[in-house]
Design brief:
It is a single chain. α1 crosses α2 and α1 packs across α3. The protein has about 150 residues and is mainly alpha-helical. It folds into two domains: about 70 residues, Multidrug-efflux Transporter Regulator, Chain: A, Domain 2 (Orthogonal Bundle), CATH 1.10.1660.10; about 55 residues. It starts with 6 loop residues before the first helix and ends in a 23-residue tail after the last helix. The protein is elongated and about 70 Å long. Helix content is about 55%, strand content about 0%.
């Protein structure tokens, strides 16, 4: 494999930003590449493959630890894929939980909007409910808050 990709080229080939490459290197998801005599990082196609894997896993919502585990599993191609299946099933469970929370959130917003009379702000049901969580029909929408994301992978 050729070792002639700069950080900018590897980022472009993997569809991410230079900062993302540095971040994943810093947290150990990709190995530190060799450097030239001028101290410039030099990557190969393996780095592009790994970054593409990470980016796709992030797009599917996998947390960084799950990605770390999947990378570790992929480094041992002859073992059973049961552990990878387990990680994917756990992620599916998390997606289903978030879908249920988002459905509850949608219902709560619809209910809040339906109760609004369209009058003055002082009588606005939207403002009132947002100011007093006890006026919500359910707490199920609490878990629908977006998950924290690492630096943009795009």
């Amino acid at each position: 494999m050729s070792r002639d990709l700069t950080i900018g080229r590897v980022a472009e080939a993997a569809g991410c930003k230079v900062q993302t490459v540095r971040y994943y290197e810093q947290i150990g998801l990709i190995p530190a590449p060799p450097r030239t005599s001028g101290n410039q990082r030099v990557y190969d196609e393996t780095a592009v493959h790994r970054l593409t894997f990470i980016r796709h896993a992030r797009e599917l919502g996998f947390p960084l630890q799950a990605i770390r585990d999947l990378i570790s599993l992929s480094d041992h191609p002859d073992q059973s894929c049961a552990a990878a299946d387990g990680i994917a099933k756990a992620q599916l469970g998390e997606v289903n939980r978030r879908i249920q929370s988002l459905i509850a959130l949608r219902h709560e917003l619809e209910h809040m909007i339906e109760q609004c009379k369209g009058g003055k702000i002082k009588d606005c049901r939207v403002i009132e409910v947002l100011s007093d969580h006890t006026l919500c029909e359910t707490d199920a929408h609490d878990a629908a808050a977006p998950m924290a994301q690492p630096p943009s992978a795009g």
